[in-house]
Automatic annotation (TrEMBL):
Keywords: Metal-binding, Oxidoreductase, Zinc. Gene3D superfamilies: NAD(P)-binding Rossmann-like Domain. Residues 6-82 form the Alcohol dehydrogenase-like C-terminal domain. The keyword Metal-binding applies. Its cofactor is Zn(2+). Belongs to the zinc-containing alcohol dehydrogenase family. The keyword Hydrolase does not apply. This is Zinc-binding dehydrogenase.
Length: 94
Protein backbone atom coordinates (compact mmCIF):
# COMPACT_ATOMS: atom_id res chain seq x y z
CA UNK A 1 0.00 0.00 0.00
CA UNK A 2 2.83 2.45 0.79
CA UNK A 3 4.28 1.98 -2.68
CA UNK A 4 1.07 3.44 -4.10
CA UNK A 5 1.69 6.73 -2.24
CA UNK A 6 5.49 6.78 -2.11
CA UNK A 7 5.79 9.13 -5.08
CA UNK A 8 3.37 11.62 -3.54
CA UNK A 9 5.24 11.51 -0.23
CA UNK A 10 8.47 12.12 -2.14
CA UNK A 11 6.95 15.20 -3.81
CA UNK A 12 5.91 16.57 -0.44
CA UNK A 13 9.37 15.99 1.03
CA UNK A 14 11.07 17.66 -1.93
CA UNK A 15 8.79 20.69 -1.80
CA UNK A 16 9.19 20.97 1.98
CA UNK A 17 12.96 20.95 1.49
CA UNK A 18 12.67 23.84 -0.97
CA UNK A 19 13.07 21.98 -4.25
CA UNK A 20 11.88 23.74 -7.38
CA UNK A 21 11.10 22.28 -10.75
CA UNK A 22 9.55 19.11 -9.31
CA UNK A 23 8.42 17.10 -12.30
CA UNK A 24 6.06 14.15 -11.97
CA UNK A 25 5.45 11.37 -14.49
CA UNK A 26 2.30 9.53 -13.45
CA UNK A 27 -0.10 7.24 -15.25
CA UNK A 28 -2.85 7.36 -12.61
CA UNK A 29 -5.27 10.28 -13.00
CA UNK A 30 -6.00 10.15 -9.28
CA UNK A 31 -2.32 10.54 -8.36
CA UNK A 32 -1.79 13.23 -11.02
CA UNK A 33 -4.62 15.23 -9.42
CA UNK A 34 -3.09 14.74 -5.98
CA UNK A 35 0.31 15.79 -7.31
CA UNK A 36 -1.28 19.05 -8.51
CA UNK A 37 -2.73 19.62 -5.05
CA UNK A 38 0.67 19.22 -3.41
CA UNK A 39 2.26 21.63 -5.88
CA UNK A 40 4.28 19.51 -8.28
CA UNK A 41 5.62 21.97 -10.87
CA UNK A 42 5.11 19.83 -13.98
CA UNK A 43 2.93 16.74 -14.31
CA UNK A 44 3.19 14.42 -17.31
CA UNK A 45 0.93 11.57 -18.30
CA UNK A 46 3.12 8.93 -19.99
CA UNK A 47 0.07 7.59 -21.85
CA UNK A 48 -0.20 10.94 -23.65
CA UNK A 49 3.42 12.03 -24.11
CA UNK A 50 6.84 10.44 -24.38
CA UNK A 51 8.01 11.47 -20.92
CA UNK A 52 11.73 11.26 -21.71
CA UNK A 53 11.37 13.41 -24.83
CA UNK A 54 9.16 15.93 -23.02
CA UNK A 55 11.64 16.20 -20.15
CA UNK A 56 14.44 16.76 -22.64
CA UNK A 57 12.36 19.50 -24.27
CA UNK A 58 11.54 21.13 -20.91
CA UNK A 59 15.20 21.08 -19.80
CA UNK A 60 16.81 22.09 -23.12
CA UNK A 61 18.20 18.54 -23.51
CA UNK A 62 19.94 18.68 -20.12
CA UNK A 63 17.68 16.18 -18.32
CA UNK A 64 16.96 16.34 -14.62
CA UNK A 65 19.53 16.54 -11.84
CA UNK A 66 17.86 13.94 -9.62
CA UNK A 67 15.27 11.28 -10.37
CA UNK A 68 13.21 9.18 -7.95
CA UNK A 69 11.31 6.07 -8.96
CA UNK A 70 8.37 5.08 -6.79
CA UNK A 71 6.94 2.37 -9.04
CA UNK A 72 9.89 0.00 -8.82
CA UNK A 73 9.28 -1.69 -12.15
CA UNK A 74 11.82 -2.17 -14.91
CA UNK A 75 10.32 0.20 -17.53
CA UNK A 76 10.23 3.15 -15.11
CA UNK A 77 13.69 2.39 -13.76
CA UNK A 78 15.10 2.33 -17.30
CA UNK A 79 13.32 5.59 -18.16
CA UNK A 80 14.82 7.24 -15.07
CA UNK A 81 18.32 6.58 -16.34
CA UNK A 82 17.42 8.37 -19.58
CA UNK A 83 16.01 11.39 -17.71
CA UNK A 84 18.95 12.13 -15.44
CA UNK A 85 21.31 14.87 -16.56
CA UNK A 86 24.75 13.77 -17.67
CA UNK A 87 25.83 17.40 -17.54
CA UNK A 88 26.13 17.33 -13.74
CA UNK A 89 28.35 14.27 -13.86
CA UNK A 90 30.62 15.92 -16.42
CA UNK A 91 30.90 19.08 -14.31
CA UNK A 92 31.83 17.11 -11.23
CA UNK A 93 34.49 15.13 -13.09
CA UNK A 94 36.07 17.98 -14.93
Amino acid sequence: MLQRWLGLLTIQALKAAGASGVLVVELSEERRNLARKIFADVILNPAEVDAVQEIKRLTNDLGVEVSFDAAGVEPTLNANFKKVSILKGNQQNG
